[in-house]
C-alpha cells in the first residue's frame, strides 16, 4: 500500500517512546517536539488502557497494539509541521493545543498503517511483527474457531479504527474551522489510498497519474494539511491569508517528501529503512520513479520493468530492475525534480506572512525531508 513509513527497525520501550531512531541530520527542534508528542501519546494511551483493562483484562490488548506501533519510534514530521504552522501564525512555542493535534496526527497515521499492513499482507512493520500477523498466530496457537487469517485481519482493522477514533478525541476541542481542515485531510488520505491500490493493480505508469497518487496518498497529509491545521488553531481569522502561502510551501515539499520515500522504497538499505530491499518494486507501487524509468526505457529495458509487481521476485531480479531504473536516467531525473520542488517550497517562504522563527525551521525541515535516508 501507499502510506509512507520509512522508520528504522527498533523496539519500543516499556514506558514510552524510543527516540533513538531520530536521524542525526534532523533539525534539533524535531527531537524536542517528538519528545513532547510522545509524552502526550504515552499519557493518553496509558489512561485508556487502564480504563478498559480495568473493565476486562482482554480489552487492554487493542490499546497495547496501538501503543506498540505509535511508541516504537518515528520522526514525528506531521506534528512538527503542525507546530510550525501554529507558531508561524502567532501561536506560542510551548502551548499544548498544537501538541495534542500532533498526537492526533500520529494516531491518524497509525490508523492508516494498521490498515495498510492488512491490505499489503505485510509480515513486519518497523522491524516488528504486524498486528494482524500476531493476532493470527494467537488464534492458531489457541485453536480457536474460524480462520486464523481472518481473525488477525479483523483485529488489525478494529485496532486501526480505534486509533482513528482516538485521533478525533484529541481534537475534540478544535474550532469548526480546524475541524473542517481535519475532515478534509481524512478524506484526502482515504482517496489517496484508493488511488494507490487502483494504480497498483492497473499497473499505472503515467507520470501525471503517479504524481497525483504521490500527492494524495502522503504528501498532502504529511506537510500541507498539518501546516494548515496548525495555522488555523492559532489564528482562525487569518485562514484566507495564511493557507495559500502555506500550500505554496507544503504542496511541492509534500511531493518531494513522498518521491524521496519512493526512492528509498526502491533502493533503500533494509538495515536503515526497516523495509525489504526493493519492496516497492516487489509490490508494484505506481510511483513517479517507475513512471519516469518506463517513459525513458528502451524496449529491452521495458521488458525488465514489466517484472515489477511480481511477489516472487528474486533478489537478483530486483537488482536487475534497479539497474534499469538507473540506466534509463529515471532515477537521475526524479532526483533533479525533487531538488526543484524543494527549492520552490523554500523560496515560497519569502512571501509567506509567518514568523521568522517558523520560516527558519521550515527551511531546515525542507532540507531534511527531501534528502533523508530514513
Automatic annotation (TrEMBL):
GO terms for biological process: isoprenoid biosynthetic process. Residues 1-22, 123-142 are annotated as: Disordered. Its cofactor is Mg(2+). CDD domains: Trans_IPPS_HT. The keyword Transferase applies. One of its GO terms (molecular function) is metal ion binding. InterPro entries: Isoprenoid_synthase_dom_sf (IPR008949), Polyprenyl_synt (IPR000092), Polyprenyl_synt_CS (IPR033749). Keywords: Magnesium, Metal-binding, Transferase. PROSITE patterns: POLYPRENYL_SYNTHASE_2. Residues 127-136 have a biased composition (Polar residues). The keyword Metal-binding applies. Belongs to the FPP/GGPP synthase family. This is Geranylgeranyl pyrophosphate synthase.
Amino acid at each position: 500500500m501507499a502510506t509512507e513509513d520509512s522508520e528504522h527497525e527498533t523496539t519500543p520501550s516499556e514506558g514510552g517512546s524510543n527516540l533513538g531512531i531520530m536521524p542525526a541530520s534532523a533539525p534539533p527542534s524535531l527531537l524536542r517536539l517528538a519528545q513532547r508528542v510522545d509524552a502526550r501519546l504515552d499519557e493518553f494511551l496509558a489512561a485508556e488502557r487502564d480504563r478498559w483493562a480495568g473493565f476486562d483484562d482482554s480489552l487492554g490488548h487493542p490499546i497495547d497494539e496501538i501503543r506498540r506501533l505509535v511508541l516504537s519510534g518515528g520522526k514525528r514530521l506531521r506534528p512538527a509541521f503542525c507546530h510550525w504552522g501554529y507558531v508561524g501564525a502567532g501561536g506560542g512555542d510551548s502551548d499544548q493545543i498544537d501538541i495534542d493535534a500532533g498526537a492526533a496526527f500520529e494516531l491518524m497515521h497509525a490508523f492508516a498503517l494498521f490498515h495498510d499492513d492488512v491490505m499489503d499482507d505485510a509480515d513486519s512493520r518497523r522491524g516488528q511483527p504486524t498486528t494482524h500477523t500476531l493476532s493470527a498466530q494467537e488464534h492458531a496457537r489457541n485453536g480457536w474457531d474460524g480462520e486464523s487469517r481472518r481473525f488477525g485481519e479483523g483485529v488489525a482493522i478494529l485496532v486501526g479504527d480505534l486509533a482513528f477514533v482516538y485521533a478525533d478525541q484529541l481534537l475534540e476541542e478544535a474550532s469548526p474551522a480546524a475541524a473542517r481542515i481535519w475532515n478534509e485531510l481524512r478524506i484526502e488520505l482515504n482517496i489517496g489510498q484508493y488511488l494507490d491500490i487502483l494504480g497498483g493493480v492497473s499497473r499505472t505508469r503515467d507520470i501525471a497519474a503517479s504524481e497525483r497518487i504521490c500527492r494524495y496518498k502522503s504528501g498532502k497529509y504529511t506537510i500541507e494539511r498539518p501546516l494548515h491545521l496548525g495555522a488555523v488553531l492559532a489564528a482562525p481569522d487569518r485562514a484566507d491569508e495564511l493557507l495559500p502561502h502555506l500550500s505554496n510551501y507544503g504542496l511541492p515539499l509534500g511531493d518531494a517528501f513522498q518521491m524521496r520515500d519512493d526512492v528509498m522504497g526502491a533502493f533503500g538499505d533494509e538495515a536503515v529503512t526497516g523495509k525489504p530491499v526493493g519492496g516497492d518494486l516487489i509490490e508494484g507501487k505506481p510511483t513517479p520513479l517507475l513512471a519516469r524509468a518506463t517513459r525513458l526505457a528502451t524496449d529491452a529495458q521495458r521488458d525488465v520493468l514489466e517484472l515489477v509487481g511480481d511477489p516472487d521476485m528474486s533478489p537478483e531480479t530486483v537488482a536487475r530492475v534497479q539497474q534499469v531504473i538507473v540506466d534509463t536516467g529515471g532515477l537521475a531525473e526524479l532526483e533533479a525534480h525533487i531538488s526543484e520542488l524543494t527549492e520552490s517550497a523554500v523560496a515560497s517562504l519569502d512571501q509567506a506572512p509567518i514568523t521568522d522563527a517558523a520560516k527558519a525551521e521550515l527551511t531546515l525541515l525542507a532540507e531534511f525531508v527531501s534528502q533523508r535516508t530514513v
